[in-house]
Structures are given as structure tokens and as C-alpha cells.
Amino acid sequence: MGDAVPQLLVNGIALGSAYALIALGFVLVINAVGAVNFAQGDLVMAGGFVAVIAGEALTGRLGGGSAWTGVLVLPLTMLAMAGFGLLFSLLAYVPLRRRPPVSVFISTIAVGLIIQHAANAGFGPEPRIGPALIQADALRLGPIALSVQQIAVIGAAGLLIGLTGLLLTRTQLGRYLRAAAQDPEIAEALGIHGARCIAVTFALAVALAGAAGMLLSNHFFVAPADGGLFMLKAYIAVTLGGWGRLDGAALAALLIGVFEVVTAAYLSYVVAEALLYAALLLVLLVRPSGLLGETIQRRT
Amino acid sequence: MTAPILTLESVSVDRSGARVVRDFTATVGAGEVVAVLGSNGAGKSSLLRAVIGLEETSAGRMMLCGEDLAGKLPRERAAAGIGYCPEGRRLFPGLTVEENLAVVFDGSARARKARIEEMLDRFPALIAKRRDRAWSLSGGQQQMLAIARAIMNSPNLVLLDEPTLGLAPMIVEEVLESVRTIAANGAGVLLAEQNVGPALRVADRVLVIARGDIVYEERAENLSAEQIAGIMLTGDRSATTAASVTG
Amino acid sequence: MARNRSFWIMAALLVLPVAAALALGGYEQRIMTLAGIYAIAVLGYQLIFGRLGALSLAQGCFFGIGAYVTGLAGVHLGWGFIASFPASLAVPALIAGLVAIPVLRLESHYFALATLGISQIALLIGVNWTEVTGGANGLYGVPGIRIAGISLFSSEAMLLMVWGTLAAAVLAFGALTRGRRARRLALLRESPEAAAAVGIDIGSNRLILFVASAAFGGGAGALQAHTIGVVSPAVLDFQIMVTILAMTVIGGRGHPAGAILGALLLAHLPEWFRFLESHYLIAYGTALLVAVIIMPEGLAGCFGRWLSVRDPTPPEIKRPVPARVSEPGGELRLCNLRKTYGGVTAVDGASLTVAPGRIVGLIGPNGSGKSTLINLATGLQGQESGTVHLGPVDLSRSPPHIRARAGLARTFQSPAGNANRTPLESVLAACPPDLTDEDAEALAMHCLERAGLEHLSGKPAGPPSPAEARGLDLARALATCPTILLLDEPAAGLAPGERADLADRLKRLAAEGLGLLIVDHSMDFLLPLADRIVCLATGTVVAEGTPEAVSKDPEAIAAYFGSRPT
Q: Which residues between 39 and 78 in chain B have a beta carbon less than 8 angstroms from any beta carbon of chain C?
């Protein structure tokens, strides 16, 4: 069993880093419009199916088994999902932007339902397998075997998280997004185009969800009903990590992934899930504002 | 004399049905500091918010360098040359000092960097804090940053809403000095204050408003702080004499 | 008249669908039975989501728990309906009561997640505790309903049973939200602070509705189990929650008619979209999205005016005003109150006294702690040290609603206004609950009169003007029959004429024996009004005395010009 521990950890980190992408997109939207995007999980699932389609199309073009298929599918998926994110915001957010946040909560539940059942109509309820990010044999270090595919997933997710971080902190666009999220009114009064920032945020958030969907679609497959659990994990990560905190959410998502994989291996998946929800309720009981505390950002 | 930077003609602002600013008429010329004095709730903030476009006017006309501001969005007014330093500073708390300045700048990356350095030179208190997040600054530093942010794009008109509120006397002096510099560089300043003493020391002209009405208008050098504080405390012009006797 | 119309509409909504189903027979009866079951669950959800405004995601879970209780009791224990149905109401209610304590104080998004987490745990148990729940296969052979030896196995009997229960549920819903309680809940939903300030106990009101909503959900689940004879984990699936939510949003979250309309519509949706086969849920999602965008009040909201038109003329009330109106009481003594937030001392050892029949003016520049002082006195914020006494009673640690009931009332700087449709209803929310309806109406009218709003009493209010909102806030405060009244900037935003009028009214209140503390930032309003002025600066009392003395007090003047010239 000991030799399996490193692989277990790699699997956990891979899952957790995909969760982190989902949670990042989730928080970005919360910060930008103050509303929970209940469809985030279904958008992950949609990304998985986009990856399935793109993978099949590319395999047709490039011939089967090209090692580069997955590497091309990832950006294609993100691009398609970014466009879908704009459409999503037009449907679920823009008509309700002057209403209380609970309206957006409900509208995203509705759009999530539409996405889920549209996928069901298009692909059927059975799980489908997405393209592998890269194709390579297991990496052997003495008695330890590590899945290169999973390591690549960690690398890709890490790269995307890093790029998102750079975009937000090092570019003028990122500063616009953060400023408009922190104080939309004053941002507007100082010359920043708030509506455009919100549109870009939705595109980015949904692209990240799509990337997670692509990265998860090979190892875990993708099925139309998957969305709910992804959304829950992101929601829990954001709560544990401190409402509105990007770093906290990503870190909590990573830990949730590792916890889930390790607990599932030694006990069972059911126990892992149950413990996760119990931990969530416990945290809400003792720290009603999240484990790491809410972000200092306050709207007046 | 050329057209004033800002012309307000009989401007009224309603807020959920109440007239919070009534028939406000004033001009701000280039290089001039005009102070609007009044206690909390007198309508000063609403007036400034109306000028930048965050509040709708229900009557009257506002012109920036002779151009009507009607129908322009806040961000368009910002681009047209109005810098705004809101009540309570309203910095972007999660952005660093540099980022707070960078994010409002309109221009190339190189010009942006140069302008940030210029601003830090002008507000040396911020240099050591340039990479700290805005929420971690002291009140005085936050105020300096809010003023610096308002003038990043070298606006023609600067709106300052209660810039001395809650600051220690020494910091107030620094804030006043920066206001003088802004005016000396040719911009018009519309300053809303409830602290009369400090306002009188930078203003060229003073307007006292109570519940939306201008109750008093005077060149600053003709007034004492005690006189105006008396007007504000009692809301009544006739109380000036009584107040100035004791003051 | 209005009550009658509402009654007939509800009666029609309960009878017509049943009659139609009985006439159409067979399949339609099954759909209508399902609609009735869901309508019960939706009624429960309206209590928590509609009346309290809390987005619970546990209503589907309570539905499922009710179904499992009936299933387990019927299959394993052999209980009949008479025993299992009460258990199916009680178990979800009990669970709701247990989780309510930590969960109900959470803010919206945490509340939604916590209730979702509870639902997920229930689902995991339902799927995995195979020995008891039958796991994914569920429990087969749930017995049909048999009452007093009569079997209700036919689809007609089941239809009548379900809709009969629904009628009972509508009555229970009415009992929970009737009359002045509805007014109180509306105020509580709009502004918990304003509700507490007029003596409404927020915690117990929330608890009652949450527990009741769970019982409604459980009852619906029990009927579902009897109807289809099977209980599987599908009843705990999030899909049920989405269905209930969709029915509530589409039907309308406020009026019981909305529950029936929403359930009727969405139960038939799969039929109408049969050509989509199993993908009718796309249509479901689309309907929900469209509904939330174009009808924020739902179907019942579209018919709302028609559903519950009120007589626009105010009720003629010629009864004597109940005796309890604002009897002179003890004086309010605030002693050495202190409050800091985030390192800033907002109130720093302030003391003051308000005697019955006297008017005290509280002035001070922006940020001097005037509003915080009122919040400390009324318990909206807790002080770090110092005491609050009303007459002989120590209120220093009492929650706001207790202080309000003890005779300490207040108005707000930005008052709540829109929750109830008419000013009269709004004031009724604040009347002491132990008054009879007639006495309460008489008291409310009297308070509206004293606040100068009698002409508006029965008018369905649009957004009130600032003067009206302030008047309403004052009338609400008076309706609690206070002995001391604290007014936070009552003159802000008023035109000069309105200010003079307000000053007259306040003088009359003091003459009645009420003690008043009036906050304002300058003295022009208070000068002719107050017996005494207290000037606050940076949280401490810097000047106190007659208005004339304070207006010449150097400390008071200094407070207004801020930092002195150095």
C-alpha cells in the first residue's frame, strides 16, 4: 500500500487543482456581481463535453493517437467556453442586474438545469471519455509509479491558476476587474467601464470552469449529471476559504481534492463526502464567516 | 476672463423624493478653490456626486469648460477631465497603493509608470507603502492616496469630498497643502467640508449650505471660522454675531 | 369584502382542479394528485422563502425525509397512515428545529449552502444505509392509505385525500401568516432592525416558520410515498428542491394561490412538452428563467391586485383608543456608555437622561457618535461598558425587542417603508400582539393621526416620500406604546414647512407625557423645541444645557469647526 501513497497524493492534487480552477471562477463572479453562480458545476460539465467534441474532431484531423491532441483541446475548450460565458451572463445576469442577488441565484439554477438537460439530449446520460492531456506511460521512480497524465493535469491547472493570478495582478485589465469588483460605483466614477469588466469576468470564470471540465474529462469521464457535485465543491471551498478570497478558495479546493481522494482510498467515497459536508456544517457553526475570514472588501 | 472650469446653474438634486440640493448656482474658475460648507446631511456630497454623474439632477445645468454635462455617464465625465475624491475615500481596498493609482490612469504603460512616480514624489508619505494594500494604510495615507488617485489624469476640475474628516491636525495641513498645489497647477477645486477651520485656510470662496439651500456666500478672507461654525451649529445666519462674540 | 373575494378565489383554486380531474379521469387524476402533493410542499417553502425571504435549499430534503418516514414506518413497522403521517410531519420538523439554531442566523449565501449540505447528508444516508433504506432500490410496498377501515386506494380517493390535505395546509398557512402576524413578518423580512425596534422577536418568528415549512414538506413527501407506493433516494434528490423552487418562483412566493398555480402549471409541463420526451426539463429550466426575469412576483403576483384588493378608503374607526397609549413612565438613564469598533471609539463614556414629558436634543458633528448612542440605548449594538435603565428596570443586556416592549421606542435615519402595502398595515405590525384586532386598528389609526398620516392610512402605498416614510416610522414607534422615544434625525430631508409641522407634533407628544430624545446635526430645528440640548463630539458629551446656552458654548462651536488652526 505504501507505494501507492505518492500516486494517491498526485491524484488528489490533480483533482484538487481542477477544483481550484472551478472555485476561482466561482469567486470571481461572486466578487464581480455579488451573486452565487449555481450553474458553475454545469459549466464544468459543458466544458467536458466541448473537450469530447474537440478531441474527436482533432483526432479525425490529426490522425488517432497524436500526443498533442489534448494540448490543443485545452485552449480550444477555454476559448469556446469564454464565448459561452458571455452568452451565459447575458441570459442569467444582465436581465437581473438591478435585482437582489437571490434572483441571480435562481436564474443560474435555471440555466444550469438547461445546460444539464441540453447535454443529456445531445449526448445521452452515459459518461463519455474526454481526450487525455498528454499520452505517456507511467513514470517509474524505483517502486513508485506515477501517472504522467495526472502530473500533466496538475501542471496545466497550476499554469492556468498562475496565469489567472498574473492577469489579475500584473495587467491593467486585471486591475480594472479587481477595482470594478471592489467598488463598482467609484470605479465607474473614476473612468472604468463596469459593464465590460463584468462581461470579461464571466468569460474568464466560465473559461476556467471549461478548463477544469476538460482536465477532469479523461480520468473521471464526463456525464450530464456531474455538475451538481462540482458546484458544491466550489461552493464549499469558497466558504471554507473565506467568502470572496481567491487564494483561500483555491487553497481550500486543493485540500478538498486531496482529502476526497485519500479518504476514498482508505475508507470510502461515501465517507469522504459525508465528512466533507459535516466539516462544512461544523465550520459554519463555529465560524459563520468562513475559516479564513471574509475578504476585507466591503461595499458601502 | 475665459469660461469657468465648472458652471452650476440652479442645480437641484432629489433623493428618493426629497430635494437634497436646491437651486445651487456657482462657478469654479481655473486655479480657484471653492469650498462648500455644511454639516452632515446638508447636501454637499449629493452635489459633488451630481457633478461626477453618480446622482441625477432634477433641474438646472452643469457645464464643464463650457460643455454641457447632461446625459454623460460618470466614466465619460471622468474622461472629460473631472477627478473625484469621494466621501470616505473609497479606495480599492484590495489593490496596492501603486495599483490604486495605475487603475484609473488613461494612457500608455510608460506614461502610467512615470505618472505614478510623479505622484509618489508629490505624496512622499506613500513611497514606503507603495506595494501595500490600501486597506492597511493609515487614515492620512489613505486620504493622500485618494487625492493622488483623483488627479492621476491631470483633470481640469477636482472634486474633493470631506478630505480632512477624521484626520489629525498635522495630516490636515498636508492635505490642505496638496489642495493648494492642485489649484496652483491650474485646476479648479470644488471642496466639500464640514470642518470650517481647515476649509477657510485653502478656499478662495466659501458657500455655506444648510439642507440644500445656499445660506451664505462670501470670499474666504472676509470670514472667521467661528462665524461659520456658528452658522452651521445653529443653522441660522443671524446667530453669527452671537457666536463671534463668544468665539 | 376583500377577505371574501380572497376566500372564493382560494376555494375555486382548490375545487376546480379536482373537479376537472374527476371529469377527465385516469391519467389527469394522477397528474393532479402530484400537483396537489407539490402544492403542499410549495406552501411550506413559501413560509421560509416567501415570508422570511431566506433561500433555503432543504425543502426537498424535508420532502424526502417525510417520504422515508412513511415508507419505513409502513414497510418495516407496519404502521398505518394514522400513525405514520403525524410522524412524517414531526420528524422533519424536529430536524429543522435542531438545525435551526446554528443555521437560521447565517447570512443568505451561507444559509443556502448550509441547507444544501444538510440535504446532501440526507441523500448520502438514503443511498448508503442500505439495511434500513433499501439503498438505491429504495423501499417497495408502501401501503396505501386506510382510515377507519376505509381504503383510499383508488386514484379518485387519493386525489381527494391529497387535495383535502392541501386545503388543510392552506388553512394552516393562513393561521401561521394571518392578520397582524403577516404584517410583522413583512416588516421582519424588509428590515430585521426595524422589526426588533418595535418589539418583534426575530428568532422565534424565524424558528416557527422554518419548523412549519419542514412539516409541510414532510407531509407532502408522506403523501407522495402513499401515492406511488415506493420510496427511493430520488425523493431526496436536488431535483425535488429545484421543482419546488421553480413552482414557488413561477407561481409566486407570497400568496398561497401562487403555490397552487405554480404546482398546477409545472405538474402539467411534462405533458405539454411530451414531444421533448425526457428532455422536458430543458423547458422546465427555460420556464424558470423566463419567470424570474419577467415576473419577479410570479403568476400570483400578476393577479395580485385582483387577488387581494383592499378597500381604498380607510376603515371608519370610531372605537375609543385603547387605554394603554403611552402612559407616562420612568426616565431613561444612559450611564457611561462606551463602544469602539475597529480601534475607533465611537461612543466614549457618554451619559444622558431623558425624563418623561421632556424633550432632549442631541447634536454633534458627523461621526460624533449620535446614532451609535441611540443604537446602544435600544440594544441594536452592544456596549462595551455602561448601563441602560428605563425607570427601575435594568435593560443593559436585554435584546432590542425586550427593550421595545419595556417602553423604549426609536425611529431610524433611513426608515424601512415598503414592506406592507398600506401605512395602516405597516403600523399594525408594531401594535402590541396582545391587543385585539379592533383595539390594534384603533391604536394604529390614532398613531397615524399623531404622525400626521391619517389621510394615507388605507392607501396602497407606492414608494413613500421621505416625509411619509419618516411619518410612518414615527407612527410605528408610537404604536408600541412607548414611554421614551428616540428619534434619529427626524427632520433630515424634510422641507421647511414639513419641519415646522413635525416640531408641532413632537411638542404635542411631549405634552402627552412621552420623553423624547431628538438627534439632529444643527440647532435650528431643536432650538424652539428642546428643553435641554446635549452636544456630542468624538463620543463624549462636551456641552449640555438650555438651547441658548449651548448655542453660545465655545466647546460646542469648537466641535463644529473641526481641527483647530494650529
A: 39-42
Tens of pLDDT, residue by residue over A235-249, are 999 988 888 888 899
DSSP H/E element including C341: strand C332-341
Q: How far is A116 from chain C (nearest CA, A)?
A: 8
- Cα distance between residue C424 and residue C442, in whole Å: 10
Assess A289–B contact: CB distance below 8 Å, yes or no: no
Q: What is the ipTM of this complex?
A: 0.89
User: Are B169 and C563 within 8 A, CB to CB?
Assistant: yes
Strand partners, C334: C352, C388
Chain A contact for C110, CB < 8 A?
yes
Does the pTM exceed 0.95? no
Which chain C residue lies closest to A272 (C-alpha atoms)? Answer: C124
CB distance C521–B39 less than 8 Å?
yes
DSSP-assigned letter for residue C315: P
Put simply, the answer to whether C565 touches B236 (Cβ < 8 Å) is no
Which three three-digit cell numbers place residue C532? 435641554
Q: Do C282 and A277 touch (CB under 8 A)?
A: no
Residues of B in contact with A169 (CB under 8 A): 99
> What single-letter amino acid sits at C436?
T
- Partners of A298 on chain B (C-beta within 8 Å) are 93
Helix pair C437-450, C496-511: axis angle to 10 deg = 130
pLDDT at A292: 62
Q: CB A186 to CB B109 under 8 A? A: no
* Burial class of residue A260 in the structure, from the number of CB atoms within 10 Å of its CB (0-12 exposed, 13-18 middle, 19+ buried): buried
Query: Which helix (H) or strand (E) segment is B157 a member of?
Result: strand B157-161
Query: What grid cell was written down for C191?
Result: 428590515
Helix pair angle (B239-246, B225-234), 10° resolution: 130
Tell me the pLDDT tens digit for each residue of C491-550.
876 766 778 888 999 999 999 889 999 998 767 788 889 999 999 888 889 889 998 888
The mean per-residue pLDDT over the stretch A49-54 comes to 95
Q: How far is A83 from chain B (nearest CA, A)?
A: 26
* b (16+ CB within 10 A) / e for C62-82: bbbbbbbbbbbbbbeeebebe
Q: What is the pLDDT of residues B36-52, one digit of tens each?
A: 988 766 788 899 999 99
B228 contacts C523? CB cut-off 8 A: no
B33-37 β-sheet, strand order: B82-85, B157-161, B188-193, B33-37, B205-210, B213-219
